[in-house]
Amino acid sequence: MHSMISDKPALAAQQRPFGAPAHVGVIMDGNGRWAASRGLPRLEGHRRGLEALRGAVRAAIDFGLDYLTVYSFSMENWSRPMQEVADLMGLLKRFIRHDLSDLDKANVKIRVIGRRDDLQEDIRTLLVEAEEATSANTGLNLVVAFNYGARQEIAAAARALAEDVAAGRVKACDIDETLFAQRLDTAGIPDPDLIIRTSGEKRLSNFLMWQAAYSEFVFLPMHWPDFDRKAFAAALAEFGSRERRFGGVTPAVEAGKART
Ligand code: FPP
Asked: What detail does the entry give on cofactor binding (predicted)?
């Protein structure tokens, strides 16, 4: 699917305006409310949510982002009615089957994070296919968080490290943030600079808890199906206006130019 001499669009990182984020995480909330407010079934909200996801991926490419991580199914979502769970699984399948070749042509590299063991065999196969088919791509990294939960991810990393220590592969005193991060699903992926959540809720809901230590947050009142390129651009502009200090001081304070 991919040749070494690529005719695919190169990563537009150099087009990224100064101050724009490299990695954006998105909590796609509000599909159900979008549907309910129109008297439509929840599935219609999720279908429209998938359309909004397609638009967000196209916009992320155009905006020159390196990574877009989308929260598509949380471990807690299993507690929804069986039919809704089946609908969401169906939409994931549709997304991969229908969009994989377009994503590949757009030089998108897909990576899936989350627990695979609980998923149906056909879905697991599709996820591996999507990752393998796009593994050589060099454009936008689309990280799909599916059956993902941050606490479970962190517990699994602790378990893996405990096993390494028990087997003598790792010394307990060598465990630090870097080594720990290498055992997370997101190993090798830079932390998100910005996390966007739609639908007015202001919480993380078990999404990228370790990785969000220094992320900026933008909460939008609109429901996810209404999230469009304009809303995405506005969130990036809001991010650009924020000052990130990572626990330090501003360069101006450091240089003694500011009072506090
Ligand atoms: C939140 O809306 C959204 C989800 C639980 C799933 C996100 C799914 C999509 C955007 C479409 C499908 C795409 C894939 C790849 C599976 P909600 O149902 O929690 O909305 P509510 O809070 O208003 O009920």
From this structure: Binds 2 magnesium ions per subunit.
Q: How many residues comprise the chain?
A: 260
Indicate which atom in ligand 1 lies nearest the CA of residue 144: 15
14 belongs to a structural domain? no
- Please give the pLDDT value at position 260: 43
Q: Is residue 122 part of a domain?
A: yes
Task: Give 203-223 pLDDT, tens digit per residue.
Answer: 999 999 999 999 999 999 999
**CATH no. for residue 98?**
3.40.1180.10
pTM (predicted TM-score): 0.91
For the chain, what is the domain count? 1
Q: Which domain holds residue 55?
A: 23-149+194-241
Helix (H, G, I), strand (E, B) or coil at 67: strand
Nearest residue to 245 via CA among 233, 236, 258? 258
Mutate to test the pocket of ligand 1, among 113, 147, 224 (most ligand atoms within 8 A of CB): 224
| Both structure tokens of 230 | 């304009």
Annotated catalytic residue 185: no
Instruction: Give every residue of the chain whose pLDDT is below 70, as ranges.
Output: 1-7, 9-18, 251-260
* 8 A C-beta contact, residue 130 and residue 110: yes
- Domain membership of residue 135 (yes or no) is yes
**What pLDDT is stored for residue 254 in this prediction?**
64
